[in-house]
Design a protein that fits this description.
single chain, 66 residues, 2 helices
């Protein structure tokens, strides 16, 4: 993963996120529910984006006869 992994928290497990964010521990809830909520939301959106991109790819292939 390039760059700061905390820029893509949805790609980290709760344990990885907690470990990497220890310097920001005072800002993180001990129960991690904000993390879990954000992780679930972004994972869902990412899955939707992947599906839409695949559909676009298929349509372009059909359009150009590939």
């Amino acid at each position: 993963m390039k760059g700061n992994p905390l820029e893509k928290p949805w790609s980290l497990t709760a344990e990885e996120f907690t470990r990497r964010a220890k310097s920001m521990a005072r800002l993180i809830s001990p129960n991690l529910s904000p993390y879990e909520t954000a992780h679930e939301e972004t994972a869902t959106i990412t899955e939707e984006i992947i599906k839409v991109e695949a559909e676009i790819d298929e349509r372009v292939k059909k359009l150009y006869g590939v």
